[in-house]
Amino acid sequence: MARRRAVGPRRSTDAGRERPGPGRAFSLAAPRFQMKLALRDRTLDLAEPVVMGVLNVTPDSFSDGGLYAGVDAAVARGERMAEEGAAIVDVGGESTRPGAAPVTAEEEIRRVVPVIERLVARIRAAVSVDTSKPEVMRAAVAAGASMVNDVRALRLPGALEAAAGCGVAVCLMHMQGEPATMQVRPDYARVVAEVREFLASRARACAAAGIARERICVDPGIGFGKTPAHNLALLANLAALGADGLPVLVGVSRKSLVGIITGRAPEDRLAGSVAFAALAVAQGASIVRAHDVAATLDAVRVAIALRRAGTGDS
Ligand code: 7PJ
Question: Which pTM was predicted?
């Protein structure tokens, strides 16, 4: 077939060739990102964007208030997310909300390992661990996790080596500062360029540590050391962040950015969150991290359908 497919698998060497130019920043055309992510034991197909479900196993998570702190409840919630179509369930035991109390590695392991062990035995979706600590990475992967999602982009001592040694996929997220103080005075000269350069440099550090490119995705870190204007600039320019071809993961679900725009409390931010999910996919995001999997997946499917129609691939 001579017609070019809009969302078919592409070689990563094609990366960035179709970056939107000035005036085309909000194109529905799919940018040329690496369309796969190599997990520990299988490959996640990203030809069509997927949803990563958020499973907080912390007593102080800002949006579900520790509702799922018990292992049984957390596992049930993870299973539900998988049934709803999550491709990945992201299990986190450290709250990164501003002002949250630090957690020891032992405590984080105590929270996440029993949940990961039981989830991997029950669901086909991949399980990732949301952590920055090398000890937690190793314990979570030993329990069956196939991806490490790190809001500190493997910058803690030993984290890069731990992730490389585990042979799993990694998500490198941008954060300015540390959770306790990151929202005090976020400061950038050119936020999109700075975040892109940070992510590219962390990807180079991963490559130097022996992590295959196929295992890496990047994330602008919405809400992590950013003003609403910074967050919006990043969301409006997602395609530029993956310019070196790495898949882009985005998490906006229930965040204060949605609250600021809609004036709503965290539990009432579903509509705003799914709107952002669809628009993030339209901008080229490959993975959308969200609390509400079914609704988010619907939004992602709508965006995929429009993208296909826009490129004559329906
Ligand atoms: C993110 C995350 C995000 C990635 C959190 C919350 C706050 N990991 N972990 N991206 N946010 N990769 O659950 O909303 O945006 S914690």
Answer: 0.88
